[in-house]
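## retry 2 of 3
previous attempt timed out at serialization; input unchanged, resubmitting
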Amino acid sequence: MTESDYELTQAVGRGAISSMGDLYERHRPLVYSLCLRMTGNMSEAEDLTQEIFIQLLGKVGSFRGESRFSSWLYRFTTNHVLMYFRRTTRRRERFPYLADEIPAIHDRPVSFAPQLLDRIALDAALAKLPSGSRSVFVKFDVEGYNHEEIAGIFGCSVGNSKSQLHKARRRLRKLLLPQKGTKFVPSCG
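## retry succeeded, writing output
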């Protein structure tokens, strides 16, 4: 029988480090895809994914099971990447003569405000979706599951999963694209 995420986190918290491997296998695609979206750099995303799972070893025991582990991990990952941005920005400010030593900083936009605004708009739009469509959208487009896996998770058919994803995407487009007669200024980033 497969252990739940909560059972695995509690086992790691008690010192059963081997359970971390199961968590890594289950959730690495989610962490990597989020890191890649936030950094826009495959190498940084891979490094950050490794860092996050190393940090997780010491923190995973604090997961109380009040939400889904994937939601908790999503927030943990987001916070870790934001701290990474702050560290690299501070390093560049404190040691400008080392700027050539940190080439990834030059590739990143100076301001994250447009990305943050996009993220807030996306979160608000996701909150407006019906729970079934939102759950399938998150599993497929955010966490990287395929339709067969989603059908198994939610106990529905593959066709239902595809239909819910289609409905979610169509609704998100309506919520996120500008309406006729409004001026749209795309964010640069």
